Amino acid sequence: MRLISLSLSPKGWGKESSTYAFHFGCMNNRIVLRSLVTSDGCLTAMDDGMIIWKPTLGRRQHTKLESLATVLLAFKNINNSLESIIVGDNCGGITHLSIPCLEVINKFNLEGESIRSICSASESTHRLLAACQSGSIWMVGDQVPSRKIHLFQNEGPITSIRVSQDEIHLQSGWQRRVLDFTGCELSYHDISDKFKKKDEIRAIRRARLLETKKNNLNYPAATTLDIPAIIA
Question: Domains of the chain by range and CATH?
Answer without folding.
Answer: 113-190 (2.40.128.630), 192-232 (no CATH)
